[in-house]
Amino acid sequence: MTEIFYAMDHVLLLADYNDPERHKHLAKHLLISLGEEITCFVEDEQATCKGIIISSNVLHTIENNGNDILVYLFDETTDIAKEIEEKYLQDNFYYVLNSSIVQEIKMIWQKDMLKRKNDKEIQKNYYSIYQKILRVCNLDTSKPYVTDERVKKVLLLLEDMEEITEGITDYLAKKVFLSKSRLSHLFKEETRISLSSFLVIMKIAKTYEYILLGESITEASIKAGFNSSSHFATTNKNMFGISASEFRKDVKVIKIK
Fold first, then answer.
1. Which among 70, 127, 60, 80 has a CA at the least distance from the CA of 102?
2. Which residues are registered as beta bridge partners of 54?
3. Which among 193, 195, 249 has a CA at the least distance from the CA of 73?
4. Helix, strand or coil for residue 25?
5. Which of 83, 87, 137, 147 sits most deeply, having the most CB atoms within 10 A of its CB?
6. Check: CATH 1.10.10.60 for 149-241?
7. pLDDT confidence tier of residue 18, bands split at 50, 70 and 90
8. Closest to 70 measured CA to CA, from 93, 58, 53
9. Which of the 8 DSSP states describes residue 66?
10. pTM (global) more than 0.85
11. β-strands 2-6, 251-255 pairing
12. 2-136, superfamily in CATH?
């Protein structure tokens, strides 16, 4: 089974992640094998390892060699993506993680997440586990915590919407009595991700949910606010490297609030 956890500032796949076709998209990767070594092909280079960070917009693929893999995906507009660039990548295509870091992450996951009983328990404990994993990687563990009531209202409005339309920023700004530019600035300040990127992630997430409720990819993507299923597929692949067809397989989606 592929499990997809989507949060405000990242997406996590727990999957048998094996894509023989090289691709690139606009998200930085943190990949941790929960088993033995995996083989990573990045541009013209190859690395065999148990953990790796891969830059965005570079050709890559993974041979998982039968292992389940944690695949964290960070949109380029997030502070975490910027910190990964500064601390690890520094304009390189990839960075192989030290085996001791990988082992610590595996222990955290196996100890804390394998005990989970249901989705409610996962949602309750997910961020503490995420923070521990980031801390092991020497990355900022500050959880996006929204204190501004206007941003809270925007998030609640988005939660209740069936679709994310093109004019939604105007609508949201009027609802909280702010200009578009002020709302965008405030949203980034509070959540650590740009409003425009968050709206795309929300639109993708709503499409996931509709697909898993039994709607066709075309019906789901249009209902969520995309122009067509191909628009959804392209956006999804560009941001997270996930093909739409994967959601017809054994997939579980968990929203982290």
1. 70
2. 29, 94
3. 193
4. coil
5. 137
6. yes
7. low
8. 53
9. T
10. no
11. parallel
12. Jelly Rolls (2.60.120.10)
